[in-house]
Design goal:
Blueprint: E1 17-23, E2 26-32, H1 44-52, E3 60-64, H2 70-78, E4 83-88, H3 91-103, E5 109-113, E6 125-130, H4 138-151, E7 152-163, H5 168-179, E8 184-190, E9 193-199
Parallel strand pairs: 3-4, 3-6, 4-5, 6-7
Antiparallel strand pairs: 1-2, 7-9, 8-9
Amino acid sequence: MNDHYYSSQPKSASDKQTFEAVLRGHKLKLTSDAGVFSRDGVDYGSRVLIEHMDIPQQASVLDVGCGYGPIGLVAARLAPQGHATLIDINERAVALAKANAKANGIENVTFTPSDLFSAVADRKFDVILSNPPIRAGKAVVHRLFEESFDRLNPGGTLWIVIQKKQGAPSARAKLEEIFGEDEVEEVGKDKGYKVIRCKRT
């Protein structure tokens, strides 16, 4: 089976479902589909990241690997004077995220299919968020870390959620190598998930 949630065009037949989720006090109506990440509901890792992420009200935010949009849409709500850009290699996921923004009246957002940062390579952001695609392999995840540093404004932050058993220690070591040991901090943990914040000085 080569139809992963990180395929650009999932081949699985569409099978949409809609559910409600309350995230950071915001009730969202979300539609997911076959061939996208965590189709049956907002996954626990994303929920942990959403609970801990700190989004300034005027921030320019990038959600890398947005799926059908829960992290990026909450970030947009938390930055009413800012703007969130949601990207994913999965074109079905991007279309869902766009529809979910419309369904919830969230307008300070834009969406684009993107292989990691390819579609935003000329832009910089105040905050980058990601529940990284662990199953895509360590090389992809480490590239995400490295390119996040290049896409952050000075003083900007990268927020990552990762499970301890899925390589949190090695991920943190890589982030410290990129950002500097003093700029990488574990800011939350829950049921084996760790939220790591990295600051570009």
